[in-house]
Design brief:
This protein has 115 residues and is of the alpha+beta class. It has one domain. Helices cover 30% and strands 32% of the residues. It has three helices and six strands. The protein has a six-stranded antiparallel sheet with strand order 1-2-3-4-5-6, sandwiched between helices. The radius of gyration is 14 Å and the shape is globular.
């Protein structure tokens, strides 16, 4: 999907997690983002999402990373605080250093600082 469509989906997840009706029903969003399998370190797998409780996110925090073998991207969502970020690169998987993690961290820090 395009980055614009993915951003729409992330917006639907945020709205549905907060009880608002979108094309994604609230019950569906909560099913997709409910912790199902422990992954260690306070992280859980939830139907494609990695999820954990983070104080700075106000509770539930979601991450999803993936690739189409040519590009790599990560979505990070703090539904309680009603925000998320998507970072994408044209560098595919298999690189020795995650090309997105530094940008994701900086965007989250920027958002947390209130700037």
């Amino acid at each position: 999907m395009s980055i614009v469509d993915w951003a729409k989906f992330i917006r639907w997840v945020i709205l549905a997690e907060n009880g608002q009706q979108t094309l994604l029903r609230s019950e569906t969003a909560k099913t997709l983002t409910t912790a199902a399998t422990p992954m260690g370190g306070g992280w859980f797998y939830a139907f494609g999402w990695m999820t954990s409780d983070q104080a700075w996110a106000g509770g539930k925090y979601l991450e999803h990373s993936g690739s189409n073998t040519f590009n790599y991207s990560t979505a990070c969502v703090a539904p309680v605080q009603r925000w998320g970020v998507i970072v994408a690169t044209n560098q595919g998987p298999g690189v020795t250093v995650d090309p997105i993690e530094p940008a994701v961290g900086r965007l989250i820090d920027f958002r947390r600082s209130g700037r």
